[in-house]
Amino acid sequence: MYGKCGSMRDALAVFTSVAQHDVITWNTLIACYILHKEYSKALEAYTKMQEDGTEPDDVTFVSMLQVCSSLMLLVYGMLIHACIILAGINMDIYVNSCLFEMYVKCESFEDGDFVRGSSQRKDTTISNLTPTMNSMGSQDEELTSFLLQESLAGSVNGCCKLLKACSIMNALDIGRHVHCNVVETVCDFDMQVGNALVDMYAKCGSIQDAYSVLCKMQKRDAVTWTTLISGSGHYMDYQFAVQCYEEMVKEGIDPVETTYVCLLTACSRAGEWKEGCRYFESMMKQHELTPISDHFYCMIDLFGRSGKLIEADDILQTIPLSCPGVVAYRTFLNHCKSHKN
């Protein structure tokens, strides 16, 4: 009601106040964002919906196709198409027309013809698919056929774009299909593809799969290791983040600024302020890296989370004038508030 009446703030307040969100609640929020042409927020809501553990339905997918059409996001649209197949959604006239419209608006006319031809040839075949991951059967063949048919899937850059979309949309199942059915059969397993796979698995929370890919790569760089450290820290696996850092250094790969941002973030979330201090010092002395603003923000957060407000204030006072101070002061004040100081 609030969303349709133009008050997104009230609509969001009602949504937030609800203890548990089901697919209808999420669909309503996404529809409101689309109604107000806030397409980026609709994408964010879709991602959060999956993180919340709510399975999208046909209404969700149709809404996301509308977003992809409006923003001309071809790669995301292809990913939604793959999700529709994987979920066994009834490919009725409405869903097919939305798919066709998305491809046409994204100027991918060949893919539009593929959708139109597929719906005419297969009629109700897809609607009878059973969404069971343990025995994919026809579903697996349908998804594999779709991924291999797409022009994106036939090149290294195409695979990387598709994997990037999977990581952003938290689509682990689709990412695994790209890995198994496209990357290993079509693309050379080079560092670019390897890094994209590590990124996809890490951001989707499958850290061990990310590490497994990393171990199989013939060449690794700072990006490979940093991506894994970032994912480990994000999913609260501090010990593994440290392990990856140590292996990286032992391998002779020099950490970069971003590596330490991810490592310090992992230390902060784990409450390991002493280790964080050690790595901060190592960054400057052993690896001769000059701290940037993000490093200072991490250190303030590190001390703040551990209740070391005096130490956090000391870092705050040493930040160079060239670094933006708003984030630093906001972080510091938030920790002061949480510790009632």
In short:
This is Pentatricopeptide repeat-containing protein. With about 350 residues, the protein is mainly alpha-helical. The protein is built from 19 helices and no strands.
Which descriptors would you attach to this protein?
341 residues; mainly alpha; 19 helices; 72% helix
Structure write-up:
- The protein is mostly helical and about 350 residues long.
- Among the domains are: about 150-215, no CATH class; about 220-340, Serine Threonine Protein Phosphatase 5, Tetratricopeptide repeat (Alpha Horseshoe), CATH 1.25.40.10.
- It has helices spanning about 10-15, 25-35, 40-50, 60-70, 75-85, 95-105, 110-120, 140-150, 155-170, 170-185, 190-205, 205-215, 220-235, 240-250, 255-270, 275-285, 295-305, 310-320, 325-340.
- The protein is globular and about 65 Å long.
- The model is unreliable at about 120-140 (pLDDT under 50).
- GO terms for molecular function: RNA binding.
- This is Pentatricopeptide repeat-containing protein.
- Keywords: Membrane, Repeat, Transmembrane, Transmembrane helix.
Task: Set out the fold topology.
Layout: H1 8-17, H2 23-35, H3 39-51, H4 58-71, H5 74-87, H6 93-105, H7 109-122, H8 138-149, H9 156-169, H10 172-186, H11 191-203, H12 207-216, H13 222-234, H14 238-250, H15 257-270, H16 273-285, H17 293-305, H18 309-318, H19 326-338
Helix pairs in contact: 1-2, 2-3, 2-4, 3-4, 4-5, 4-6, 5-9, 6-7, 8-10, 9-10, 9-11, 10-11, 11-12, 11-13, 12-13, 13-14, 13-15, 14-15, 15-16, 15-17, 16-17, 17-18, 17-19, 18-19
